[in-house]
Each structure stands twice: as structure tokens, then as C-alpha cells.
Specification:
The chain is of the alpha+beta class. Helices cover 20% and strands 30% of the residues. It has helices at residues 18-31, 48-52, 69-86; strands at 10-12, 35-36, 55-56, 58-62, 98-103, 108-112, 129-134, 139-141, 144-146, 151-152, 160-164, 171-173, 176-179, 181-188. Strands 1-11-7-14-5-4-2 form a 7-stranded antiparallel β-sheet, with helices on one face. Strands 3-6-12-9-10 form a 5-stranded antiparallel β-sheet, with no helix packed on it. Strands 8-13 form a two-stranded antiparallel ribbon. The longest helix has 18 residues, at 69-86.
Length: 189
């Protein structure tokens, strides 16, 4: 029986091979045009100056047909299936495109929840779960904290973390103090 909100957070260590993580990180770091991430709230997308107070990160979307898309989809599907083995009231209907996040030194993302609707290519309404893949762990700071700091992810290269995308799971990325932090996330509906 689940008794604590953190019981609904699952980490899957070694979910993806380290060499694959390196290859994917290197490919996307060097071959795509990165965008400054924009923070949005439930009413609107914040302007650039407001947004920089909430997030300093670059991102890009990986869509079906993109390099390594199929391999990433396999990994995210496997992580989602592991989660629903335990939390079996969730039916996986589909997933959003993948967003790769690049936090350089000084990068961060303010506390927020993922209870979004029809955003970023979603077609199924509010997501049930968020899945995050840690592509590297060669950085300082950049801790991934959930549930108002009650839970800190291990964030090891190749690991996945899966958690509900609702108001009970606010999460944030603390400021990166050295190095660069790369992750890829998806919302599952």
C-alpha cells in the first residue's frame, strides 16, 4: 500500500546504456539549433524577461523520425511499462514528442508542475506521468527535486525517473554550478 506521496516516484537505474547516452548527447549537442526555453503558466507563455526569472535552459524537440527517436521511444516505453506494473490504474494512450534539455553552468528551472493540457504536441489531454532520462551526470549542482524538496533524484547517467504529472508533484532543477546537464523528457497520457 502506498502511504507517502513519494511512493509514486520510481527511479529506474541503468535504463539506457551509457554509450548510447553519450552518443545521443553528442549528436544533439552538436547538430541541432537550440532554443532558449520559455516558461509558461496556466494563463500564458511568459515573455523573455519574465521567463529568465523562472528558467535558464536551452531545449529542442525530438519528433518521430528524428535521429535516435525510435531508440528513445523504446526506453521511455519500457520505463512507462515498469511504472504501470506497480501503478496499474494508468492506461498508456500515447506520448508527447521528446524534449531534450541543456542546462549550462548557471542553468536552472523553477518549481512547477506538469499538469498541462494540449501543449507541446500532446493530443490526449492532461498527462498521467512524466518520464525523465538523465543523459549525463558529469556536472555539479543541477539537483532534480520533487514534492517541495522532499525527494531528490539520484540522477545517474542512463537512469529514468517516472512520476505523476499533477499538482502533488511540483519539481525543479537547482542551479548547475559546474559543467553541463543534459536530460530528455516526455509526457505520457
Amino acid at each position: 500500500m502506498m502511504t507517502n506521496v513519494t511512493d509514486y516516484i520510481m527511479e529506474i537505474p541503468n535504463g539506457m546504456n551509457h554509450d548510447e547516452c553519450n552518443t545521443i548527447q553528442t549528436y544533439y549537442r552538436n547538430t541541432i539549433t537550440w532554443n532558449d526555453s520559455k516558461f509558461a503558466n496556466n494563463k500564458r507563455r511568459l515573455n523573455t524577461e519574465e521567463s529568465k526569472k523562472r528558467v535558464v535552459m536551452r531545449d529542442q524537440w525530438i519528433y518521430k523520425g528524428g535521429k535516435y527517436y525510435d531508440r528513445l521511444k523504446e526506453g521511455f516505453n519500457r520505463a512507462g511499462q515498469e511504472y504501470v506494473k506497480i501503478h496499474d490504474k494508468i492506461d498508456i494512450l500515447g506520448m508527447s514528442p521528446f524534449r531534450i534539455n541543456w542546462y549550462e553552468k548557471g542553468g536552472f528551472m523553477d518549481k512547477h508542475t506538469d499538469n498541462i493540457h494540449h501543449s507541446h504536441g500532446q493530443q490526449w489531454g492532461y498527462p498521467h506521468i512524466t518520464i525523465l532520462l538523465f543523459l549525463n551526470d558529469e556536472y555539479e549542482g543541477g539537483e532534480f527535486k520533487l514534492c517541495d524538496g522532499e525527494y531528490t533524484a539520484n540522477a545517474e547517467k542512463g537512469s529514468f525517473i517516472v512520476f505523476p504529472s499533477n499538482f502533488m508533484y511540483p519539481h525543479e532543477v537547482k542551479k548547475v554550478t559546474d559543467g553541463e546537464r543534459f536530460t530528455i523528457m516526455v509526457w505520457i497520457a
